[in-house]
Amino acid sequence: MAFSFYSCFVILLFSLSIAVSSSEITSATNNDSESLLAEEKALMETGWWSNYSNIGVHHCTWPGVRCNAAGSVIEIDLSGHGLNGSITPQIGALSKLKSLNLSSNNLRGELPSSLGNLTQLAVLDVSYNEIHSIPLEIDKMQNLVTLNLTRNLIVHLPSAIGLLTNLTSLIMNSNPLRSIIPPHIWNLKKLRTLHLRNCQLNSSIPPYIGKLKSLVNLHLSSNMLVGPIPSSITNLTNLQSLLLQGNQLNGSIPREIGRLTNLITFNLSFNMLVGPIPSSVNNLTNLASLVLYGNQLNGSIPQEIGRLTNLITLDLSFNMLVGPIPSSVNNVTNLGSLFLQHNQLNGSIPQEIVWNI
């Protein structure tokens, strides 16, 4: 009898366990289904697919949409799809979204604050639109790695940008910022690419630029930047591309510029730089392009220029350089373009240069 009672008790516990597990599975399934339905509803309410008459029943088959195995939307790419109007707040319901590319459309207004709900988003590209502001809630997007805002109407970068500590690429070319380089950027220690070309920036380059030691690409060209190039820029020893052309920078090229041994492209043209070309350029042995034309550089072309054996383009034209063309230029056997006109050079042109270029 005791055995029978014990057996019944075990069976009862087992049955209850199955019932609870089934209930949990059913609940989880219902939650997943509700979540997917909410995602589909959010996609519909954006209106971005309203012009498609033959889209499939399931949203994962829609143009530009990619889902994970569970059916959640993880990527939207509607670049160049002729989208109009504003970005609707419903986009914030896509909680699993990792990449959103809405570039090259006609989107206007401000980015919705609901973007802050996209905490898994790694890539946000809304370049080539008419977006004019960024919400403070962007600071919740802690997984954001790439932010491309090129060619919009943004006049202010909120301080919340400085809290995106995983950001490695910030591209904001051709926005009317019209002021200083936003100081919040200096907190982005993982930043590898910073593009602020043609943003009407009219201040000096602050010494804080030297804090961004992970930078590989720094493009600040075609602005109205003034003052000297800060020596702290030579702390950016990972730089491969440094483009500062088309500004109003003055003073001399930092003597320590030779510390940037990873530089491949270096352009300081169309500024008001004076003084000699630093002899430390001989350390920039990875350089493929050195463009310094349109300044007021003086002194002679350093003999050390011959150590830059990877150079393909060397443009020192429209300066006030004097003396002969150094014979060491003959060592730069990969040189395809050499521009030295409008200086005060004298002496003869080395015969080897004539044959090699």
Characterization of the model:
The protein has helices spanning 2-46, 351-356; strands at 65-67, 73-77, 84-85, 99-101, 106-110, 123-125, 130-133, 146-148, 169-171, 193-195, 217-219, 226-227, 241-243, 248-249, 265-267, 274-275, 289-291, 296-297, 313-315, 322-323, 337-339, 344-345. Strand 1 (65-67) and strand 2 form a beta hairpin. It has a 13-stranded mixed sheet, with no helix packed on it. The chain has a three-stranded parallel sheet with strand order 3-5-7, with no helix packed on it. Strands 12-14 form a two-stranded parallel ribbon. The chain is elongated, with a radius of gyration of 29 Å. The termini are far apart. Helices cover 14% and strands 18% of the residues.
User: How many helices?
Assistant: 2
Termini gap: 106 Å
Count of the separate structural domains: 1
Side by side, the strands of the main sheet go 1-2-4-6-8-9-10-11-13-15-17-19-21
Give the biggest beta sheet. Answer: 13 strands, mixed
| CATH architecture classification | Alpha-Beta Horseshoe
- What is the 3D shape? elongated
What value does the Rg take, in angstroms?
A: 29 Å
CATH topology: Leucine-rich repeat, LRR (right-handed beta-alpha superhelix)
Mean pLDDT score? 89
Q: What structural category arises from helix and sheet content?
A: alpha/beta
Secondary structure: helix percent = 10-25%
